[in-house]
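Weekly structure sync, notes
Attendees: PL (lead), two postdocs, one rotation student
Agenda item 3: pending single-chain targets
PL asked that the sequence for the first pending target be pasted directly into the notes so everyone works from the same version. It is reproduced below exactly as submitted, 227 residues in total.
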Amino acid sequence: MLGTRLGSYRLLAKIGHGGMGEIFLAIHYGTVVTYRAVKRMHPHLCHDPKFEELFLREASILVELQPAHHPNLLQIYDIGSVGGVPYIAMEYVPGHTLREVCRAAAGRRRRPGETLIPVEHALEITLAVCAALEFLHTKIVAHRDLTPTNLLLTRHGSVKVLDFGIAKVEPHTCSFKGTLAYMSPEQVDHRSVDHRTDFYTLGMLLYKMLTGNRPPRFDRFRSPLPL
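Predicted structure, written out during the meeting:
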């Protein structure tokens, strides 16, 4: 797969993956040769309308947000399909996910009372995500899946919110989608969900950054839930 062409992009290295696709560092051969991050849907999911809908929904939402580009969201350059496999070409920003940052911090010895991530840095990350959420919510978009994996901390100190695969443009929805450990109570209980669920989840992320743990009350959700 690496080294092959995907439209006008040559895939160089795999830099990430998720439930619906893989992300590659790629070179774009245009007027100027540039680096891009290309998210390609898993080929074995392309014939499942449910997963294809989720992947294309992310693309459509991101395209709608582009005219008013926000610094805490990735810029989208291209959407296409090769051999029936859809892809999204995005801004490439070197960095680490919040999950990777938390794991690295957990590996060092902390003094009693010391937070996992310094309080000032944790608040900077939280405020940046708040800015992105404010922008999204004014566009009537709820992310619904904020997790440490979906926050990218760049080498220049900025924060990017990733993965809009289950975002919803509708103000109220009722469905069981998301990452269980970071779901709001209404998501877990199959109740109507709107933009406020994002702020609940952001509070959980702040808790994680400060303590290194998830809120303990979510231990009761480890058993299988009826879907």
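Discussion points:
- The domain at 5-91 is CATH 3.30.200.20 (Phosphorylase Kinase; domain 1).
- The first strand starts at residue 5 and ends at 6.
Action: rotation student to compare against the earlier draft before next sync.
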